[in-house]
Write a structure and sequence with these properties.
16% strand, 348 residues, alpha/beta, 5-stranded mixed sheet
């Protein structure tokens, strides 16, 4: 059957229209697939980046876990260190632990020492620097019986027996300040047994330790702070290597800020952290932890910290301490006070 010319033209027109429609559908589909592929490639750009792992740091303590370090443990337990992307290992210490040497040698990133220890170390060339001072008032004191009715620290040296570590810097200061002619000096044995049996016996103490032990055993301790006599080094001072500070200043700042957060939490509510400390140091009971926390609070929170923040330090305090140690011949030259400490922001 033959088709007319008009029929052939109509057939060609219909075929062309169908082909054009198919091509349009094909192009549209291809465009959609291309856009979808581009969208998938763009997803990683807009996705949340994977958080960096917390930086591991080590803090070496110069004594066993007790309330004087409560803020550092609180910073760990409450997550203050984690919030600053820090993973802090706290290494407990004890008698003779060489914290200064550990920090100076890089075996610990941070450590706690007494202010006079730091000055002595700097005068001998150790390149360590203070970044946070926990105790604004030194907790070192002299404990006597309240029944003696002594009115001042000077009267402690007028009679009786006194147990001291005579080689300690504060003992040298007391000997220079007060006559020791009428008091019998004996070695300090670390306990309170003799104090409890001898009404004329006095001894060195930490306000967070021996007076609490004596009181719990029925004693009547009266404490004179050595700081009130003019010798008041910062205590539980955080130190680090100057090289570490210079190369990781932001990291040091985070550690200091997080530690200050921990101390604020501990001072406000020491109970939860004391439970942790009790597991680490079972030789102390809950009542002792609570009493020590209360006794140390006014020595950490002071007029100075209310103005400048926890852990604050001043050049004048470091200069005074350095001059005292020089006069006691415990150092041969004065270190530059600016080399002893670095004031960190964000402590308040």
């Amino acid at each position: 059957m033959k088709l007319s010319l008009n029929s052939l033209k109509r057939h060609a027109t219909i075929h062309h229209a169908q082909r054009r429609a198919w091509l349009q559908r094909f192009v549209t589909t291809l465009l959609l697939l291309t856009l979808a592929a581009c969208s998938k490639k763009a997803d990683p750009v807009t996705a949340e980046p994977t958080p960096a792992k917390p930086t591991k740091l080590k803090l070496a303590l110069n004594w066993v876990p007790e309330p004087e370090f409560g803020g550092f443990y609180a910073a760990r337990e409450t997550g203050a260190y984690r919030q600053h992307r820090l993973d802090v290992e706290i290494q407990g210490g004890g008698a003779g632990v060489p914290v200064l040497q550990m920090v100076a040698a890089g075996r610990a990133d941070f450590g706690t020492v007494g202010g006079d220890e730091l000055v002595t170390a700097r005068a001998r060339g150790a390149d360590v620097v203070a970044v946070f001072a926990t105790f604004q008032t030194s907790p070192q004191g002299i404990m006597v019986h309240a029944s003696r009715k002594l009115a001042s620290l000077a009267q402690v040296f007028e009679s009786g027996t006194l147990a001291l570590e005579t080689g300690a810097a504060y003992a040298g200061y007391l000997k220079k300040k007060f006559p020791w002619n009428n008091v019998k000096i004996v070695p300090y044995d670390g306990g309170v047994a003799r104090f409890l049996t001898d009404a004329n016996f006095g001894q060195q103490c930490y306000v967070t330790s021996e007076p609490i032990a004596a009181r719990q055993k029925g004693g009547d301790p009266q404490v004179f702070l050595i700081a009130d006599a003019g010798y008041n080094p910062y205590t539980t001072v955080i130190i680090t290597r100057r090289e570490f500070l210079q190369t990781h200043r932001d990291l040091v700042q985070k550690f200091v800020s997080a530690s200050a957060d921990g101390w604020r939490a501990y001072l406000a509510n020491p109970g939860p952290t004391n439970l942790t400390l009790g597991k680490l140091n079972p030789s102390m009971d809950a009542a002792t932890f609570a009493a020590a926390s209360t006794a140390q609070k006014p020595l950490i929170e002071t007029v100075e910290t209310q103005k400048a923040g926890l852990g604050t330090m001043s050049r004048e305090r470091w200069e005074t301490l350095s001059k005292q140690l020089l006069e006691l011949k415990l150092i041969e030259r004065l270190p530059n006070a600016n080399d002893l400490f670095v004031s960190q922001g964000g402590q308040r």
